[in-house]
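This week, look over our next protein:
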Amino acid sequence: MKEGRIFGLINGSLLAVIGALTLFPLYYVFVVSFTDPAEYIAKQGFVLFPEKWSLLSYRYILSTSSYLRATGVSTFLATVGTALSLMVTAALAYGLSRKRLRIRKPLMLMVLFTMLFSPGIIPHYILVRDLNLINNLWSLILPSLSSGWYVFLMKSFFDSIPPSLEEAAMVDGYNDFRIFFRIILPLSLPAIAAFGLFYAVGYWNTYFNAVLYINDSTKWPLQILLQNILIDSSTSSSGSGAAELMNEQQLPAQTLKMAAVVVATLPILFVYPLLQKHFAKGVMLGSIKE
């Protein structure tokens, strides 16, 4: 009994230390973003708890036209891209889960092939260029429209739905489309919520494809703009950047960087609690068959 308490105490203390080390970078980013510029400069860039809080960095970032425009682009990618990806993934997974589909096995092999082999960056770029999608936001959606791994996971979920439901619907005169939209999708909300969150985070964090396909700074997503802020503390398309702002209002570049990271991260942090209930259930559904 005594040994169990000692083990629990040691285990709890170790987990607390690991948790504190994990959360400290997030805490430091949050604190620095709200630190008064004069205090940050006086303390030479190391602040654990500011004596004076300030919103100057957030006011500057949120008032910058390029930042607001980049946020709109990322929001478009996360909403439209996620909706289209879910529709394509669910439709393909449903088709693969139906044994009456004649070309089921060849399709499964094709999806599996995409998981094992990738054509590489250059063929991807040539394809996007030949489709005239360079400097087009659809170039950030169409190449990432679906994932073979997600298709197989959602197929496993559809396999767990009793076939008797479809047979009863067919007796009532439902065709495959009505069965999919009226029966299968409503039953699949937990799985859709889980994969929707995965897709939304991926589209919101779009960076590499934007570097390859988007040359127009007015169409940059938020992550590209953040990268520019982190590199030279300047917004790409506005006339005044962080370096100039430092001279005018004495705002350190580091507080601007931290504020930009917080603003870019908050939307996803707000979305997760709304989907947490369905997310936890959706991840487990289909993984174990009764």
